[in-house]
Design a protein that fits this description.
By secondary structure, the chain is mostly beta strands. The chain is 0% helix and 53% strand. It contains no helices and eleven strands. The chain is globular and about 45 Å long. The N and C termini lie far apart (40 Å).
Length: 119
């Protein structure tokens, strides 16, 4: 069993920044070292979409075109934590942001954190 807890969402003006955090926990000895972890986002009435992904083993990253150049995904393996630094936020970035990891044929999701970009 893996648990993911997101934090850091909130209300921000267009052009502003937020940093989301996702802390992963599991059975004794659990570590993110061997996995990739991703941030998804979802707007009511729309499908959940991937925003960014990071390999915790080699640091490789992937970004959706809609966030490339504005968002940065990073991680601290010793803390089992992944971050999503979001800069130059736009109203269309408004969504619930979810942390996701796939381990041993299971999909694990966090509870989500709301990000609202509005003036």
């Amino acid at each position: 069993e893996v648990h993911l807890v997101e934090s850091g969402g909130g209300l921000v003006q267009p052009g502003g920044s937020l940093r989301l955090s996702c802390v992963a926990s599991g059975d004794s000895g659990f570590t993110l070292d061997d996995y990739s972890i991703a941030w998804f986002r979802q707007v009511p009435g729309k499908e959940r979409e991937g925003a960014a992904c990071r390999s915790m083993s080699d640091g490789g990253t992937y970004y959706a075109d809609s966030v490339k150049g504005r968002f940065t995904i990073s991680g601290e393996n010793v803390k089992n934590t992944v971050y999503l630094q979001m800069n130059s936020l736009k109203p269309e970035d408004t969504a619930v942001y979810y942390c996701f990891i796939f381990i041993n044929d299971y999909n694990y999701w966090g509870q989500g954190t709301q990000v609202t970009v509005s003036s």
